[in-house]
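Schema walkthrough. Field components (list of strings):
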Amino acid sequence: MIKFTLRRLLITFPQLVLLSILVFFLGSLMPGDALSGMIDPSIPAEAIQARREALGLDNPWYIQYRDWVVAMFQGDFGNSIFHQRPVLDVIGDRLLNTIWLSLFSVFIIYLIGLPLGLISGRYKDSLLDSAITGYTYLGFATPTFVFGLVLLWIFGYHFGVFPTNGSVAAGLEPGSLDYILSKINHLILPSFSIALIGLVGTVQYLRSGVIEAQQKDYVMLARAKGVKSTALYVKHIFRNAIIPIAAFFGYELVGLLGGSIFIEWVYAYPGMGALFLESISTRDFSVANVLILFYGFLTILGALLSDIILSIVDPRIRIK
Amino acid sequence: MVEYLLEANSLTTSFKIDGEYYPAVDDVSIRIRQNEVLALVGESGSGKSATAFSLMGLHRHARVTGEVFFQGKDLLKNNERQMNKIRGGDIAMIFQDPMTALNPLMKIKHQIQETLRIHGTGKKSERESYTIELLDRVGIPRPERVAEAYPHELSGGMRQRVVIAIAIANRPKLLIADEPTTALDVTIQAQILDLIRELQDDLGSGVLLITHDLGVVAEMADRVAVMYAGQIVEVAPVRELFMNPQHPYTRSLLNSLPSEEQLGSKLHVIQGVVPALNKMDRDGCRFAPRIPWISAEEHEHQPKLREIAPGHQVRCTCYKNFHLNTSMDHGAVEQRVEAHQMEEGGVDRR
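Field assembly_structure (string):
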């Protein structure tokens, strides 16, 4: 198992190198650079050119890439030209917020999605199942940001029970109980916006998994052994139906880390998604590159996580 | 009545197709004595497996009527809880396809111990060793290791032995074997049949052996019931059936076996297929469309099973004048059978 994980991580490395080259190359194809947005008619063109040379922005992309990689191995991820701060500092602030948001969302997705899927599959074609299935169709058809806006309007504006922006109330001592409670309070609306829409896939997968497993020969054999209904569902049907969900866990979690851009925007939540959009539009490539690399790394990590979880729940996948 | 281990009378199992119920098992009566092997023979879709599943009450969405007496009690009157006690206990089942019959996520020993626990066989502390014993009993080498294995680590033959071990775990009085060798390759088939025979002798249980393989029937059965389109068309002791088959379907089946006498000639094939459940003509002889050269007058309107010799029953009167169609060329029969199928709409049955 450990060997398998190590091997997987080792394969990750060339994938990351490839990804970074690709990202750098594509970035160089885009018109403009970090300085083009700052051009002030009062600054002489020679001065800007000198600045470009100093920053190495006039070098071909592969030279820039080399410089970038060399610096990175020395622990220097560069400065954000737009924020005038080290890239890692800029990202670091936002990263934690996004991680909390994703974890909270995933938790709610499984907390609500798993029971809904299992119930819907077990009581197929019942009134309850129709209601749940109807909800999933509605969820599939609703864009997350629209749903987020609706929740924001109802609970944030109309009833005013939850804050409508930010990740924490101003003026609180970090680490204090009030600070943590305020953080959670700010998380509730965005994470429910993500989860209530995000869980529909899980529900439908699980529903069809349960329905499929019910018809399997081994379920028939279990019934022929005299296994009672409850045990039949828990031990034979649900366990088999949940495998695809478990396999998706890694992707789900990582997908949320990179995919909550719209919700972060709706709730003005200072996360990585918002930062990413901003860095692209300002041509702040030193931030964008690190972010893309980070997302790439997360995706590969998510695949690894999925593989590991899958090998735990399904003995057929277990690697010796 | 006491002399029979199992006595099913007028067992009828209907499935719902497009809102209407159609009987897949139609008025089937079978009797099995202790220590007797009754073979239930027929081609795919004739209702053999549906009969077996009905006996154990395993159908979820079917309507089952009639009576099934087992040890003096009508199983069809039992509720789910009472049936769970009998299923896997006094009546156990061997499944057709060992590749799919075991839960892929459970260790072999847990799948065996599950049935031991449900039926309270052995003390908790003894179950581990009894599991190994069972695996050894069904001829699995190194049973200690296999007990710890998952199904995917075993071959088809080994898995079928595990399925059999599960079936005999609680020393059942009736063993239902649903095509136990169909999914196995030929060399393994003989071994598995020997094993079932041996275990049956050992346990003294009655066996309902479902198969479409007449070779298996000849080797294993004491009596044979031939099923066609949901009905039993002929019942006879095994020797009698092979030496003196009466019903046109039985005779066609036997004639479809390759034999030495017919060496060099074309293999006999019964034209057409079993009619679809919801497109079947329920009046008259159900085999009539597949033997179109027999005139309608020779069939009964409502064919009944009649005893023609002690222990030998045949349905419909058409057997009296039946001759195998050897003169007529196959093309003509095929055409008539095809025309008939077109009328039926060729709906497949589940």
